Amino acid sequence: MTIQTIKTTPFDDQKPGTSGLRKSVKHFKKPDYLQTFVQAIFNTLEHVQDSTLVLGGDGRYFNREAIQIILRMAAATGFGRVIVGQGGILSTPAASNVIRQYQAIGGIILSASHNAGGPEGDFGIKFNGANGGPAPESMTEAMFAAAKQIHEYHIAPLQPIPVDKLGKYQLAGMQVEVIDAVSDYLALMERIFDFDKISALLASNHFKMRFDAMHAVTGPYAHRILEQRLGAPEGTVIHGEPLADFGGGHPDPNQAHATELMNLLYARNSDIDFGAASDGDGDRNMILGKRFFVTPSDSLAVLAANARLIPGYKDGIAGIARSMPTSQAPDRVAEKLGLPCFETPTGWKFFGNLLDAGKITLCGEESFGTGSDHVREKDGLWAVLFWLNLLAEKQDSVENIVRQHWAEYGRNYYSRHDYEAIEMQDANALVDALQAQLPGLAGKPFGDLTVSAADNFTYTDPVDGSVSQNQGIRILFADGSRIIFRLSGTGTQGATLRVYLEKYEADVSKHDQDVQEALADLLAIVQQVARIEHFTGRAAADVIT
Ligand code: VG1
Ligand code: CO
Whose Cα sits closest to atom 19 in ligand 1? Predict the structure, then answer.
């Protein structure tokens, strides 16, 4: 079989962001663009000959074409076997599991996660290593550097693999194994959670739930696990059919984008006790009680505090990690349990070393990401099953469980304000101006609040000593309140400014405030120090979560 070598010109814009390389579909469809990045991944890997690669995506527009191209390039590179999810589909956490289970060299995941899809939407690609987790920065930097040097790529001649049919196929001497995307993942969940107890809860007349798959990858997983295996009534899963354009919506499980689910749970006469949603590639989760929203930061704290109730964590957890902008609610749990707590930069890749070294068991991000050492990605359905197992154990409502948690640990009022698609140069000017103020902020009073420290977050990985700088501007106040500014590393249009606000309230009689009102003082300080409207022309955030 003759392998073709195609001459091409290098690309200098293939720098992966927070989670892989994300660009518009139009950008990805430029001649040789996808192929160059795939070749850059393959050139960066060592010992690919005869190794196993995992391949799957979230099913968005361009997924199918990309799968066939990558299979042909993998065959040309000399991989022994590629394991593909049926239909070219694998959720991100399921892919992480398959990599680990089949001892693959790693996997390629095709997803732009919560970004909109379709011909006018976004596409993305990322590489996860043998531990199942996102490639560390050293590796993504190497891929970026490789892409700038690539003048040719290698590809086997066209032989489309019928990825919709389970089975084993041959492609230019390489084996392609199409596997059921759900079954290995379901088996893993059965090893962690008490499925009998969850089934009993779902069968009871006093409990109703809805899971919103947002027309994204978790539809088949949720139908199989929640409805077929656990016996939740048909109709429990809404928007369960994966669509290449996610039905035109943003597959982002938050209060702003999961509107139908929010309406169901917040209706005055709602009879639904538990609501949950996940994103494009199935790694995010939103948790709702009846007319009650659980912030992702609180969710991590509650799961950590109650982990021993879950079979998979019955012997306790080793430690907790959270991304820097995530609220400090989990820290309080770690302190009480006498566990180590780590603060990492934004992005799941920073949890990998801590998980591999056994320093932590649970970790999470404010951006609706929660996970554990069962895989090396955040895991949306895992979080939903954790909550269901907890509800089954406690026989109490989501709201009561969270309120009791606040009563015990205090409440961290929390919100994120996103200013999307602003001009890159405006965003940079705003950040530069903030950076310039940092040295003078410590000790400065703003009303009742006094700045205790202000910096740009630097992280030193406690396992391998690698240093990551400029991970977000932090203004820390003496009472534990925080304001954080970061530019998104997943957006594809201009820049997205994220402003994170956090205020701690120990007094249980003050746990009923409106979140934005509780944070109003901090928002006023944001306007004063960052002058967002001055720099960007925006008077208010586009998305508030
Ligand atoms: C965002 C979130 C971050 C998350 C990342 C990938 O990154 O803030 O916490 O890890 O998305 O999640 P950024 O750089 O735009 O703030 V996913 O579900 O999009 O893979
Ligand atoms: Co995602």
Answer: 113
